[in-house]
Amino acid sequence: MPAPTAVELLWGTQQRARRGPKPALSLERIVGEAIALADAEGLANLSMQRLAERLGFTKMSLYRYVPGKAELTALMLDAAIGTPPAPTADWRAGLQTWADLIFARYSAHPWAIDLTTGQRPIGPNELGWMETALTALAGTGLTGSERLDTIVLLNGHVRSLVEQLAPPNVSEDDYATQLAETMAAVGDDYPAAMAAFAEEAATAQSGNALQFGIDRILDGLAVLIERRP
Q1: Vertex 79, ends 78 and 85: CA angle to 5°?
Q2: What's the first-to-final CA gap in the chain, in angstroms?
C-alpha cells in the first residue's frame, strides 16, 4: 500500500488496513507529541528521531503512520490552529472574534506561522477558519476577491504581532530598563520617539497594537461596505 499523502492524512481519506493487530500508536498521539515538542523547543528541533524517542518507539515505527516530516508538520499546523469559531451574520463582530481567536492560537504555537507560507495542502481546520470569515462577510457587497483579501489583511496583522511579541531574550523589566537608558542617552536625536514614549508613560497606558490594527482595518472595511449597494 503506498504511503498516504499530506492531503489524505489531513482529510482522513487514506485507505486503512482492515486486518492485523491493534496499532501501538495513533496518528493523533504522534501529532500531539510533535506539537508539544515544537512548543517546548521550536520547530527547528523537531525531527522524526527526536519525536520517536519522546514516544518511546523507533523512528521506523512512525513511518507506518506518517511518511515524513512534511506530512507531519501539515498535520501539526491544522491541529494547532484548531477548530474555528462559529460563523456569525454580524460581519464586524465576527471578524473581531476571528482575529482575537487566531491571535490566541498563533500565540500558543508561534512556530505554526512558519508553516503557513507558500503553496501547501490545506487542512479542514484551516479551511474552516477561512469559511468562518467569508461567511461573516457574506451580504456586505464585497466581491469574492475582496473578501479573500480581507482575510489576508487581518491574518497578516495578527501574524506580525505574534512574531513581534514572541517571548523576548530578556525580561520585560530588563527591556524597559534598556530602553529607558537608550532614550536617556540618545533621546534628543529622536524627539518624536522621545515624545511618544513620554506621553505613554504620563498616561500610564500602554498601547494595544493588536486591537488598534484590527479596529483600523475594520473601520476601512466599513467605509468600503457603505459604498456598495
Answers
A1: 80
A2: 55
The pLDDT score that the predictor gives to residue 22 is: 65
Quote the cell numbers at residue 37. Answer: 515538542
Superfamily for domain range 6-79: Homeodomain-like (1.10.10.60)
Q: Alpha carbon 42 to chain centroid distance?
A: 14
Rounded to an integer, what distance in angstroms lies between the CA atom of residue 99 and that of residue 85? 10
Averaged over 66-92, what is the pLDDT?
Answer: 95
Max Cα separation, the chain? 76
Q: Which residues contact 161 (CB under 8 A, 6 or more apart)?
A: 103, 209, 210, 213
Q: What pLDDT, in 10s, does the model give residues 106-136?
A: 999 999 999 999 889 999 999 999 999 999 9
What is the Cα–Cα distance from 43 to 73, expressed in whole angstroms?
A: 9
The correct CATH number of 82-168+207-226 out of 2.40.50.180, 1.10.357.10, 3.30.420.10, 3.90.1150.10 is 1.10.357.10
pTM of the model as a whole: 0.85
At residue 2, does pLDDT exceed 90?
A: no
* CB-CB neighbours of 38 under 10 Å: 23
